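Q: What does the assembly look like in three dimensions?
Context provided by user:
Components: two
Sequences:
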Amino acid sequence: MKTFAPRNFVSRSISKVGDVILYLPSFLTYSFLILIPFLVLIISSVTNYNWTYPDTSFIGLQNYTTLFSDPEFRKSIVTTLKFAGIIIVFPNIAGLFIAVLLNKKGKLYNGVRTLIFMPMTLSAVVVSVVWASILTDNGILNALLSEIGLNKLTQSWIGSQSLALPSVAFIVSWQMVGFCMVIYLADLQSIPKELAEAAKIDGCTEFQLFRYVSWPLLAGSLTINTTVLSLVGLRLYDQVIVVTAGGPAGATETIATTMVRTAFQSARVAYASAMAIVLTVLVAVITSVLVYLLTKREVER
Amino acid sequence: MITQKSRRKLAISTFAATLVFSVALSGVNSMSASAAQKAGAACKKANAVVKGASALENLVCVKKKGKLVLEEQWKQPAELSLLVFKTPNIQEDYWVALTAEARKAMPNLKIKYLYTPGLDRKQYAQQLLTTNQLPDLIWDVPQADFAKAGALLPYPESALAGFNGGETRIDGKVYGLPMGAQAIPVVYYNKTQFKEAGITSVPKTWAEFLTACEKLKAKGFTPLLAGGGSDGWATPIMMSGILNSDVMSKNPKFNQDYKSGKASLKANALAAFKKFEVLVDKKYFNSDALSINYGQVKEKFESGGGSMYPMGTWQAAGVGKGFDIGVFPIPPDSGSPTVGAVVGPVPFISAKTKFPAQALKAGILIASSQAGGEAGAVNDALFPNVKGWKAKSKMTQLFDESFAIYNDSKRVPTFGWNGGADELPAAFMADFSKAIQGMMDGSKTADQAVDDLDASIKKNTAR
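A: Here is the predicted structure of the complete assembly.
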């Protein structure tokens, strides 16, 4: 078979230049949008840049040492991890449950799947504004509970420190259920029917069918959903700002909200840059560990 | 016949004339620009700028009726972006009315209105500054931070001629004009609920205030309303009022001393925080205070959902549904009341505006406009500070009563609302809101709140 491999030095060089030209647009885009801003962030984090002061100087790792002894920042790390924990678990479980229930053909099932996916088409801010009005003390939820005689269950869902975090996490989870459902459905529908038929012939119940046939084959979906949900939870900002603005009394301040407030209200941009680096490392470590464990599980399955 | 002597004389006189003419032309800069304009000095090059003492006095060379003449630079075409906001009281028509006289006096000016997405307009302005998107004119900024960062263009002294004083200065410069005043806060109350609770006169001392709260609570009313949620600035407004009354009244420079470390809340204001703690412990506030925003708490008061509503005098533009609203100042322990007063300053001008002359002129015309003062008074109960301002509409009784409190009480800078030298860092104000929220949900005592805030002011005034 005739090949087109370059035969001499000039041809090889021209081929390499051609490769570079092909890679260049992506590399330049990546550099301008990600690499260079990240480098600027790192450089900023080792200075004392504050936009209300004209002079800036290098201060080494002082911002980082201050960060880890800052009780406000440590609290925001814990709050962020709590949010991430809830957001990784609940939409995954709910999305899987709904996907299994709706893994059938028919217009009704199509319609319900569309309805459940619809929140994903709305912006996080719109969803948050709507849910904030439902969850406020005199909102629809408490009014409904009072109406059906469940006054004892009425709470200050977003006004109390103990419930504000789970309430905001619920809002995020509610929106992400549709995403998880779609991912699980795609995998469920690609499971060969012959496997299910064979299992049924062998006397499997529905639960056994799910546990021993479907669930192992959903390992890839679990990896995707968990990775996406961990990114959403660890970088949480919009929903917190709209619903509680980080309150009440700082109960829902995440790393992202603390970082933005430090940069724009306190003008301590360098300190906020250090927070951004810490958040990046945290997201990278957690998602890497999750992906490693889940991918290993995928291979085993 | 032209002799050598006459030739010499001609040369000397021509030289002298040229010299004088050159000095006259080049000396346009050394005499005031307005004097040059009056002198009818011609200009040679279109669009050449003759600088005045400030950008407001700049002249530019323009072609008029085939001739190049000097004209005020502020009259030249420009498009200025104006960052403003909306509240339940203030919508687009307010800003259109406010800028009407400026647009009439400057027919070549186009104004593009930009609205802050939320009610925290200072934080939004900070975001725009750090992303290099600050509009030409901004209604509200954290003045001290912006001035320190060199982000604002100062007004010339001549801009203050149309106002009754009260301007805030930073290092002697004025960055916003003293357009109107507000007292922050006073206490608006539901007259019907007061009557039903047997309260026959407004409280004049703190003891009477507590008695009134107890009577209202006994009658099943919510004595005090507060809001928070996404509008964290609203939560500590009652605490600001107590601090104005108990701390600022004794030391009007407290904000400055606090920032410089000469004073602390622990040493000077713990008793005031303990007063607020009593109000929380006795459950005088609405139980949903931390979950409702500013718009919702305002609606709650105007619908009769609470008896007393501590708020800035902009509430005087509000109307009770089925009841009359009255007003009184925060009662002191004894003696005459004190109110925290904020005069202007508005609007601010970006130092990077491409049209400084037009921006300065527009700022002055907007702040000093009669129609603007009228719109401010009617929509936002702003007490106009413009010389010779007279109301064309009949103001409401509530406006007149609020204005009387402002005029008759001792006025001091507020704790947290003033600009200039008295301005507290924006990040500290966020911590102030957080501390008061903590007190309101029982997770912080007055001592803890005060300690947190003293630590916050140190952190936020350091580099």
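Follow-up: Residues 9-45 of chain A form the longest helix (37 residues).
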